Amino acid sequence: MLKLFLLICFHTSLVRLVDGGGHCSGRVEVLHRGQWGTLCDDDWDMRDAAVVCRELGCGEAVDVLGNSHFGPGSGPIWMDDVDCSGSESTLKTCTSAGWGKHDCNQTKNAGVSCSGVRLVGGPRCSGRVEVLHGKTWATVCDADFDQQDAEVVCRELGCGAPVEVLGAAAFGRGEGQVWTKELQCRGNESQIHLCPKSSTLKHDCSHDNDVGLVCADMVRLVDGSSRCAGRVEVLHRGQWGTVCDDDWDMRDAAVVCRELGCGEAVDAVGKAHFGPRSGPIWMNKVACSGSESTLKNCVKHDCSHDSDVALVCAGKSCVF
């Protein structure tokens, strides 16, 4: 008698975020050999976080957290010394010490915060506002979005303060559903999912009413001849600071030029070429692959302002 054996596989994510209050924030756990386990935070950085956020269908990686920020896990520790380039489709394809090989305990679990909101159709920190609803993205009605909501969106994405709220699908009409709730942020929340929400919209909206938002850039070029040349400064914790020139190269410069909409990188300059500044030095030994959407995703400080980095972009895409 001929016997047929059937195998039915159900697609499930091989990574999850736990105890963070939502699908896009929490302790990183991976599924291996049928069991969920944690990751050590050794060398855990924004490139690794970017892979997790992409794999989960969340927005940008906005923070990497160690020391079991979201509480210690239990069970096996599956990964340590994770090293992603940032372009991988799944965390399991990143290099690591090997499955189950580690030198840490559950007090050193890695965590991630991804954004539950994104800006689409514009340069970095500008675009059509879309919020994560379950596991799908939905647009937001312009009549139900105000300055307080904008403050939270810009903050969650690591951008500067809101510059302009735009209605009437200024960044193009979205697809899929229009979000069925009204945001009622107070303006001081760190993430959209923490904002109070009404049960229903006050207005009958379509994609013709998709709201757009322009936030201030999170990176800028200062003291050059235009906005596309100068000392590199990044916004972190509400304060502008500089970047050290250790390992600063054309791949790093390419990310900044693209983030600012300034065309190709022409030159990567160190030794405070455009003058030193005071204040914090936020980044050192930046190691971009060149494909990142933002400089903050390249983080991998032991210098002074005499080493502030600078660069020159082609400027062909600049708007003065």
Description:
This protein is mainly beta. The protein folds into three domains: 15-114, Mac-2 Binding Protein; 117-215, Mac-2 Binding Protein; 219-313, Mac-2 Binding Protein (Roll). Helices cover 9% and strands 28% of the residues. It is built from three helices and 17 strands. It has helices at residues 46-55, 147-156, 250-259; strands spanning 15-22, 25-32, 35-39, 61-65, 77-79, 111-114, 117-121, 126-133, 136-139, 162-166, 212-215, 219-223, 229-236, 239-243, 265-269, 281-283, 310-313. Strands 1, 2, 3, 4, 5 and 6 form a six-stranded mixed beta sheet that branches. Strands 12, 13, 14, 15, 16 and 17 form a six-stranded mixed beta sheet that branches. Strands 7, 8, 9, 10 and 11 form a five-stranded antiparallel beta sheet that branches. A hairpin with a 5-residue loop joins strand 12 (219-223) and strand 13 (229-236). The longest helix is centred in the first third of the chain and has 10 residues, at 46-55. The radius of gyration is 21 Å and the shape is globular. Mean pLDDT is 84; it is low at 5-11.
